[in-house]
Amino acid sequence: MKSIIYSFLLSTLFLSVKAQDIKPGAIWPDEQGIHVNAHGGGILYSNGTYYWFGEHKSEKTSAALKGVTCYSSKNLTDWKNEGIALAVMPDGSGSDIEKGCVLERPKVVYNEKTNKYVMWFHLELKGKGYDAARVGVAVSDKVTGPYRFIHSYRPCAGKWPDNMSETERTSTVKPEDFEKWWTPEWRQAVEEGLFNRRDHAGGQMSRDMTIFVDQDKKAYHIYSSEENLTLQIAELSDDYQSHTGKYIRIFPGGHNEAPAIFKKNGIYYLITSGCTGWDPNEARMFTASSIWGPWKQHPNPCRGDDANLTFHSQSTYILPVAGKKDAFIFMADRWTPKHPSDARYIWLPIQFENGLPVLKWMDKWNLSIFD
Ligand code: DGJ
């Protein structure tokens, strides 16, 4: 009898210390057994707890019917539903975030100066498809919310990117000068700032996005702009609630979406996707030793079967694991547009080969991989 009790105690102890598995692509039940509903999300680590914010998706539509969800976890595997952190406004309210708008890729950061949590997201106004191309901001005194919507806009109105030449700024070439898109002349004009100039007065288009807070606490908004053809990196104000107007364009005409970034040993690593709607494509990777560039492109970081489709997923965030050195998790979405709430999460550990990040498929893995 003694030995049975002893082995029971041992196995209980073993189970409690063994890291639990993350299973990319599987249903991920929350504490109530319901698949986590936090798509295109990001994670904030605050006071010993991870908070996962993401798009609430419904059964049949990708439009926002509820808002941004929040889940909490101590171990990154067991998630508790904390409810809706930012709620969409009622039908007919006329709010920018009226129910039925498109509210994607929310990211929350904490601002030490104001002691507030700031949520940024891609916003498309209700009934206008993807034409608005705005970024939205909401704030809260409490990490789980409720977040209060402040404003939405197109960034950097009236400002030129630091890395746009005088010739590009003053060029008179306009989108209307081109009968057809995708010709070599049109591509060259795009690279030379065709759409940046068009949107100079009203602000730059802002769709897929992420927010990055650097070690010196400066925050940056990285977003697909200029008809999704060019990425822009823009500095945020000290309270993280607006833009300062300082920004650059990177990979003009490169057609990058889904930016996700991390920093290790002074190097910034940016992983993006191409632009193929909800369908997966091959990931891209870039590095720089300053956020302001120059940025350099490297080969696809994915290895093995389906590497050319990012394992049937699209990047959304890169999470530094708290308390572990150089431990980063690549988070991506495997979209299911016919049944949006069923979309799956592809989380993979970032490994390094020859000094560059590498992603390899794993059916399951756990945090001990970083030890
Ligand atoms: C790809 C983007 O990455 C998603 O966030 C979403 O905007 C879809 N396009 C819509 O087609």
Description:
This protein has a domain at 31-153: 5 Propeller (Tachylectin-2, Chain A), CATH 2.115.10.20. The two termini are 37 Å apart. It is built from 4 helices and 22 strands. It has 371 residues and is mainly β. The relative contact order is 0.12. The structure holds (2R,3S,4R,5S)-2-(hydroxymethyl)piperidine-3,4,5-triol. (2R,3S,4R,5S)-2-(hydroxymethyl)piperidine-3,4,5-triol binds next to strand 5 and strand 13. (2R,3S,4R,5S)-2-(hydroxymethyl)piperidine-3,4,5-triol binds at residues 40, 104-105, 208, 257-258, 277-278, 314.
Quick overview:
The protein is mainly beta. It contains 4 helices and 22 strands.
Per CATH, the superfamily of the domain at 31-153 is Glycosyl hydrolase domain, family 43
Strand content: 35-45%
Order of helices and strands: HEEEEEEEEHHHEEEEEEEEEEEEEE
Helix content: under 10%
Unreliable residue runs: 10-16
CATH topology of the domain at 31-153: Tachylectin-2, Chain A
The radius of gyration is 21 Å
Determine the N-to-C terminus distance: 37 Å
The shape, in one word, is globular
**CATH architecture label of the domain at 31-153:** 5 Propeller
Sheet/helix structural class:
mainly beta
Mean pLDDT: 95
